[in-house]
Amino acid sequence: MLSHYRSVVRGILIAAFMIASFPRGALSAEIKVIAANALKDGYTELVSSFEKSSGHTVITTWAGTVNATKRVSDGEVYDLVIISSGNIDQLIAAGKLAAGSRADFAKAGIGVAVRAGLPKPDVSTNETVKAAVLAAKSVVYSAGPSGAYVGELLKKMGIAEQVASKVKQPSSGAEVAAILARGEADFGFAQVSEFLNVPGLIDLGPLPASIQNFTIYAIGRHVAAPSSDAAQALVKHLKSPEAAPAIKKMGMEPG
């Protein structure tokens, strides 16, 4: 009997030792995320530090907010969705993302740029922005939240019909900065983060305060998230005070 007892105890101790010695990588999870293009630089930096500290792997799919919303609505499953807050709310209401899971991540204003080689127009006031749009041979803005606002802004300025023939609006996910850099448009509007440190264009800075508009990018957890616990750890990392410098580096403010 005593021999059997000792054997059981020995087995328990060996099992405990094996669990304690188990490589962290073997306990790691794969977290799938779909995120808005505008967040790429700061988010990528934060994910890198998270992977090193947690042992988890993050697989990110990049898309425009409109395209990401459609993909999740159509049934694609990710652990986390990081797009504009309005679309996160929409997906929560549709039952695709978990109720109460919205966590605001970053706030971004709209910036202005021209392709390299063109004169640098004044965009410091409402009127000078209007004049710059009228003078440009072609204008581009996104199909996402910032583009929707710019479309309404041109209407309020009373020039929407006048410039309609020279406006280019690419499909969701196409980057305005890349279009300007390739010389396919002369003047563009996008989230400020998109124009930072991009060769082939001149970043003119944010819209003036009188006509500025901010997009809040938020995180939502899918109702069927395969790696829910690990995803929550990533959300905590993205929302931590230590994340602020990476967010500010891409021209945004922590949410």
**Per the principal axes of the C-alpha atoms, what is the gross shape?**
elongated
Structural domain count: 2
Average predicted confidence as pLDDT: 89
C-alpha-based Rg, rounded: 23 Å
What is the C-level CATH assignment of the largest domain? Alpha Beta
Order of SSEs: HEHEHEHEEHEHHEHEEEHHE
In oligomeric terms, what are we looking at?
single chain
Number of strands: 11
Low-confidence residue ranges = 11-26
- Total number of helices: 10
Distance between the termini: 63 Å
CATH topology type of the largest domain = D-Maltodextrin-Binding Protein, domain 2
Question: How do the strands and helices of this protein lay out in sequence?
Answer:
Blueprint: H1 2-21, E1 30-36, H2 40-54, E2 57-63, H3 65-73, E3 80-84, H4 85-93, E4 103-108, E5 110-115, H5 126-135, E6 139-141, H6 145-156, H7 160-163, E7 167-168, H8 176-181, E8 187-191, E9 201-206, E10 215-221, H9 228-238, H10 244-249, E11 253-254
Write a structural description.
The chain has 255 residues and is an alpha/beta fold. The protein contains ten helices and eleven strands. Strands 2-1-3-10-4-11 form a six-stranded mixed sheet. A five-stranded mixed sheet has the order 7-6-8-5-9. β1, α2 and β2 form a beta-alpha-beta unit. The chain folds into two domains: 7-106 and 217-254, Periplasmic binding protein-like II (D-Maltodextrin-Binding Protein, domain 2, 3-Layer(aba) Sandwich); 110-211, D-Maltodextrin-Binding Protein, domain 2, CATH 3.40.190. The longest helix has 20 residues, at 2-21.
Task: Give a short overview.
The protein has 255 residues and is an alpha/beta fold. It contains 10 helices and 11 strands.
